[in-house]
Every structure is written in C-alpha cells, then in structure tokens.
Amino acid sequence: MDDERTDVDVDETDLALLRRVERDDDVNLTELAAELDLSKSAVHYRLNKLKDAGVITAVSADVDPLALGLTTLVITEVSVVHESGYADEIGTELTEIDGTVQVYYTMGDVDFVVLSRVQNREQLNALIDEIVSIDGVNETSSTFVMKELKTGGETVAAMSDEMIANLIEE
Amino acid sequence: MDDERTDVDVDETDLALLRRVERDDDVNLTELAAELDLSKSAVHYRLNKLKDAGVITAVSADVDPLALGLTTLVITEVSVVHESGYADEIGTELTEIDGTVQVYYTMGDVDFVVLSRVQNREQLNALIDEIVSIDGVNETSSTFVMKELKTGGETVAAMSDEMIANLIEE
DNA sequence: AATGAAATCGACCAGCA
DNA sequence: TGCTGGTCGATTTCATT
User: Which pLDDT score, from 0 to 100, does residue A5 have?
Assistant: First the structure.
C-alpha cells in the first residue's frame, strides 16, 4: 500500500478501451463499439472523457524508423562533472541534439541515459561528438541495440493485474 | 556515404505530413490540408501511400503513464551467463514480464536493457525478482529515472537535416 | 448512457498535369 | 505518378430523454 492518490478514476471498460486504442486507433466508432460491446455513444463519451482527463494525451501516427533508414539504435550513458549544477541545462541540450529520441535524467553514477537513432556509423560518431562537447559532460558509454524486442508503444497492455487492481479500487 | 538502399521514397511533403501526424493525428483532412497547403485529396492520397508503404505502422492513442499511477520508470541492465545460447528465449521472457515497456538486446557486456513502469517500490522489487529468476540471467543493475526529458514519441522530428537529405536524394 | 437527427467527414472516382 | 474537385455514403456530434 503505497501510492494511493490517483488523479483520475477509470474502470475496467475504460482500460479495455485504452488497451484497444493505444494499439490501434485507426478505427471508427462502430467497430470500437462492436468490439467492446458498447454503444457508439458510450464509446464516444468515454473517449472524450479520457482525453479531457489527460489519460489519452494524443492520438498520433507511429512512424517506422527503419522505413526512413534509421537502422541504428544506440543507448548512451552520460555522466556529468558532479560539481556543476548545470544538469538541467545539459539535459535540455541532449534533447536538442539531432538523432536523440529518448532522454532520461537518472539517479546514480550515470546522470543521463540517451537513446538515439541514426542512419550510419558516421552519424553516430557525429552524435557522440556532440554529446561529449556539451559543457559539463564528463564521460559517455554507448551500446548498440541489436534487436528491439519491445518498443514501449503500449502502456496499459504492460500493466499487471495488481496495477490494474490498484487503479480500480480507489 | 553508407546506407544507400532505402525501401521507400518520401519527399519533403511526406516528411512534413509525417511530422504533423506523428505529433497529433487527431485532426480531420480539412485541417491537415490547410496546414500543409494541399488539397484534402492529396493529403488522403499521401497518407494512404505512407500506410501502404509501412512508413506509418499504426495510428495509436498515447496513454499517460502517470495518469494510471505508473509514477516510477526504471532502467535495468541485464547480463546473462554467456555460455547459454538462450538469449532469444530470455529476451522473450523479459518482454512478457508485467511492467516492462521496452526491451532491447544489446552488444557488449550488458546483454539486455529493460525499461519498466511500476506504481510503487514493492512492484519494482517484484519486477526485479522476476527478472533475476529467469533461467540464464546472471546479473542486473537498475537505475531510477528522475525525469523524462524526451520520450521518443516522434521519429521524424528527431532527424537531422543530413538524415533528411539522405532520404530525399535517392 | 442511449436515441435519433443534423452536420460533417472521409472515401472514391473520372479526368488532368 | 501525383493531384483536382466534386459527389455520396458513412460518420461524428449533440441535444434530449
């Protein structure tokens, strides 16, 4: 029993709807209604509610990086000189480097984890050069991704029964 | 000059369209057409083309993890005993653990990088226990994410001019 | 949360550059 | 090959219960 305060309240139907549209929202209300055993109006009502509540933050097209030649995904750990209080600024600069797709500020001896997509090794070298040239960056360590086994597109689908239960009973 | 063979050919207009819909596809054709200075038919035509070509793999709703109480994001490095050729199987098992949202198979001394979302520390402990109990897993190292600075939703927007140029000139 | 009607939209086509 | 413009059926939307 830890985190009790949840901003929004969703029920099992909402979660089923979310699971469906986070996978594929390129459907009309009639189809959604049939799949979820709801009326079209009910689906419409719930989708609006979920968007208003901020549970659904956007409806977006998923672009295949490979189709654009972005065949290389790299994970880079970035450490900064720990005297500098410029972590915020460094983080912002990391997000602005072309090719970076995910940037996380982390606890521990590594300060940032950066995921980047590039088309070839030259672009990778250029990208890492850009990172190390940021003022305050101390050390970097990069690893190639050989296979993307799960890509993070689906949030609700990744939740356990316990996580679901914590949401429902509130 | 490295990777020359790209499966699909897209032009600047396609990329502008992709940039728009990967950010927000919750708009009608009329609005898209106005923003891109195209006719509705042209937008319709290009969107279909991009979906057929596999550049757009899906249109999906983005769910805010925080709205569902998933306040904790953790990055875990997983090493396997290197005698075992069960890397594929271990990878699959990692993707199936509740809470894991991204799983990458990597080169180097770390074999997998796993990103997980949980609601509290107990769930995190349970998750890590599940990982280490996988047959063949040797060692894990986890790091809390304190701030998500860039979350990887947009692929085209992250591309440099050079990457774009490599795509256009083919 | 359901109904039904009005407004709007997306799909499609024949023709064109 | 990519686009235009217009039509029609389908869809979203909304007031009402």
Answer: 42
Give how far B84 is from chain A: nearest CA, Å: 18
- Give how many domains chain A has, as a whole number: 2
Query: Are residues A119 and A76 part of one domain?
Result: yes
Domain membership flag for residue B160: no
Among A10, A75, A124, A165, smallest CA distance to B163 is for A124
Residue A116 lies in a domain: yes
Best mutation target, A163, A164, A168, A170, to test chain B (most B CBs within 10 A): A163
pLDDT in tens, A28-68: 999 999 999 999 999 999 999 999 999 999 999 999 999 99
- Chain B CB within 8 Å of residue A101 CB: yes
| Nearest chain A residue (CA) to B90 | A149
In a domain, A6, yes or no: no
User: Is A117 exposed, middle or buried (CB count within 10 Å of its CB: 0-12, 13-18, 19+)?
Assistant: buried
- B87 and A CB contact within 8 Å: no
Q: Helix, strand, coil shares of chain B as percentages rounded to 5?
A: 40, 25, 30
Q: How far apart are CA B76 and CA B141, in angstroms?
A: 5
Q: What is the CATH number of the domain that holds A50?
A: 1.10.10.10
| Residue A35: alpha-carbon gap to chain centroid | 27
Q: Is the pTM of this model over 0.85?
A: yes
pLDDT, residue A6, reads 46
List the domain range (segments joined by +) for residue B135.
65-144
First to last CA, chain A: 12
The separation, in Å, between residue B40 CA and nucleotide C8 C1' comes to: 14
- pLDDT at position B65 is 97
Instruction: Nearest chain A residue to B24 by CA: give it.
Output: A60
> Smallest CA–C1' separation from B39: which nucleotide?
D4
Give the amino acid at B45.
Y
**B28 CB-to-strand C distance under 7 Å:** yes
- Give the integer Cα–Cα distance in Å for B25 and B23: 7
